[in-house]
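Propose amino acids for all 88 sites.
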């Protein structure tokens, strides 16, 4: 899979999870809301990196792609934790 496609897929999947969580946040505990707010900062960082990769503003390097993957995985795990809290 090409780098741009991979980053786009990561962002699209996380956007769907994020959007679903945003709809449910009114039911969330304070802890879940705080965790979601922290995740929002990472989300903005991932979107900026994905934009840079997709627009060729920066030379796509393995390090940049690796950073995007790491942030994506962190967000994925954070969204899972928040979802579990909402189901309790």
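Proposal:
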């Amino acid at each position: 899979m090409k780098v741009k496609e991979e980053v786009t897929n990561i962002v699209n999947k996380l956007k769907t999870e994020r959007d679903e969580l945003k709809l449910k946040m009114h039911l969330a505990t304070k802890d879940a809301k705080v965790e979601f707010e922290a995740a929002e900062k990472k989300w903005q960082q991932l979107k900026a990196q994905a934009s840079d990769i997709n627009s060729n503003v920066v030379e796509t390097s393995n390090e940049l792609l690796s950073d995007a993957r790491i942030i994506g995985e962190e967000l994925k795990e954070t969204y899972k934790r928040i979802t579990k809290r909402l189901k309790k």
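The two ends are 38 Å apart (CA to CA). The chain has one domain: 3-87.
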